[in-house]
Amino acid sequence: MYTTKKDKTNTQSTEKIPSKENADRRNRKGNKMSEEHVIATETLEVRDDRMWVSLTYRCLELDKVVSWCTLPSCGAVLPFIGVTRDNFEEKKVVKLSYESFRDLALRQFVEICNEVFAREEWHGVKRIALHHAVGDVGVGGHSVICCVSGEHRKEVFEACEWIMFDLKKRVAIWKKEVFDDGESIWKENKEQFHKGA
To answer: By C-alpha distance, which of 106, 97, 103, 102 is closest to 135?
Structure first.
């Protein structure tokens, strides 16, 4: 059975997160809200025995993801981390800003995981965690974590690469690159124009 944490104020099935709400939400000081309230309003997730997918304003937690994916039956656990770099075409990047139709993106995450589990060549894959940040992610921050565990390394490597390619190709998440001169550009993923896949 899936368990889902939703934004208590979300009244639309596909609410796009406004960029004006993104500023420094991961670096709050003196926040008087309870931990439970912060999680409820900032994280949307689906989790069962095989998959754990999430979209969140909060910092992505690599240790928790890897720990959840690790099982006694698995000989391989592979985490991939997407990190904000400090440059693009000789310009200095200060942050990435992500927006998303969260409900739609979460359903697409679930579809991607289910497609992996349905592939015969990856039958040894046991667990998939796919967590993506929304809002601002500064240089060095984690934008996405994809962790796959399975019986053997070959299927785990292949599945993880396919998941990341498909995520960038079709999931309703958009990225804006912000530079130190105040300029910014919305980035298109090259995977969206790839006809192979």
So the answer is: 97
| Best CA proximity match to 144, nearest among 161, 131, 157 | 131
Q: Measure the CA angle with vertex 41, ends 38 and 45; round to 5°.
A: 105
Q: Which residue is associated with the tokens 């937690």?
A: 61
Confidence of residue 8 (pLDDT cuts 50, 70, 90): very low
Residue 109 is classified by DSSP as H
CATH number at residue 134: 3.90.1170.40
Query: 53 by DSSP, 3-state: which?
Result: strand
Whole-model pTM above 0.70? yes
Q: Quick: pLDDT tens for 16-60.
A: 433 334 434 443 333 343 444 344 468 999 999 999 999 999 999
Residue 70 lies in a domain: yes
Backbone angles phi, psi at 85, to 5 degrees: -95, 165
d(CA 25, CA 15): 18
> How many domains in the chain?
1
Question: Whole domain around residue 175: which residue ranges?
Answer: 47-186
The answer to the question of residue 136 being in a domain is yes
